[in-house]
Specification:
The protein has eleven helices and ten strands. It is of the alpha/beta class. The structure holds S-adenosyl-L-homocysteine.
């Protein structure tokens, strides 16, 4: 690493420390573990707590979805551990991660566990926190912007909107052992106007069929947002009956959303507008309807 890069790193860390001090934020102390969310991808969505912890940590265990660009803020002598697990691996890996967190903390290190999105949303953060609690290790949880909310916003889809959905359900498409989750699909179909699916590429077709069997319209809008908030972000808007096929060929990671709120993207795709997309001022067709009659 060149001297100027080193100096920049030191400056950045000093700046983060100053910001945190100004705002009276806590420091990551020796012997502590912080479980922090990195957000869905765009490094600008990581919180100040998370950035500050990256700059202070002695050891950082990062999962597969946390944006590695953030690690440029780490100390040059920090130990960076790639503790990524991608779907369906045996749970032994999870126990190993928890054991390592405990061992590092017992050595008196400042330990950061950096996770994509929010650590408590389908991220197994609670399992790790429980292991720390059982071991008597002090910890802090730093929530992050979760893909199922922030990822949708980057596609111009509000997770709730008064005219389309007064409720939303977050579901993992991958239950225990990677099988489709066993849920009361009839209750969800009836009770939840908007459904957001994490880790659902594989079982999207099955889930869509269950919802249709329970009464949801085959033509209900649905969207797949791949690489949300990253340069490679891509959105496919489809209908419920075609969701499985569209998901099968989508890039990962992908977040899926089913519901009338998907229509709002036609008016709110602010990121698309930056590259020339024309936005529809009346994406739900309400004004056109009232004009007509
Ligand atoms: N804790 C994370 C979720 C981990 S589960 C969070 O709060 O966001 C992993 C799943 O999250 C992926 O399979 C995908 O469904 C979703 N995901 C995470 N990052 C994403 C991104 N940048 N774009 C689209 N989906 C994403």
């Amino acid at each position: 690493m060149s001297n100027s890069v080193l100096a920049l790193g030191t400056d950045n860390r000093a700046a983060l420390r100053r910001l945190a001090e100004t705002l009276g934020l806590p420091r990551l102390e020796p012997g502590w573990v912080w479980l922090a969310g990195a957000g869905p991808g765009d490094p600008g969505l990581a919180s100040l707590h998370t950035l500050h912890a990256i700059a202070e940590a002695d050891v950082i265990l990062t999962d597969a979805l946390a944006n590695k660009a953030l690690l440029q803020l780490a100390r040059t002598d920090a130990q960076l551990v790639d503790a990524g697990k991608r779907g369906g691996k045996p749970s032994a890996a999870q126990e190993t991660i928890s054991r390592r967190l405990i061992a590092y903390a017992r050595k008196g290190l400042r330990v950061l566990r950096l996770k994509g999105g929010d650590p408590f949303v389908f991220g197994r953060g609670a399992e790790e926190a429980l292991a720390l609690a059982r071991a008597g290790i002090p910890f802090r949880v730093v929530p992050g912007v979760t893909a199922g909310i922030g990822g949708l916003a980057y596609a111009g889809i509000p997770v709730t909107h008064r005219d389309t959905n007064q409720a939303v359900t977050f579901i993992t498409g991958s239950g225990a052992n990677g099988a489709a989750p066993e849920l009361d699909w009839a209750a969800i179909a009836k009770g939840s106007p908007t459904i957001v699916l994490y880790m659902a590429r594989k079982h999207a077709g099955k889930i869509a069929s269950a919802l249709i069997a329970a009464g949801r319209d085959v033509n209900e809008p649905a969207a797949i947002i791949s690489n949300a908030s990253l340069k490679e972000q891509a959105t496919v808007v489809t209908r419920l009956a075609a969701l499985g096929d569209a998901a099968a060929v989508a890039d990962t990671p992908a977040i899926l959303v089913i519901g009338e709120n998907v229509r709002l993207a036609a008016g709110l795709d602010w990121l698309g507008a930056l590259s020339g997309r024309l936005l529809d001022a009346d994406p739900l067709g309400r004004e056109r309807l009232s004009d007509a009659g």
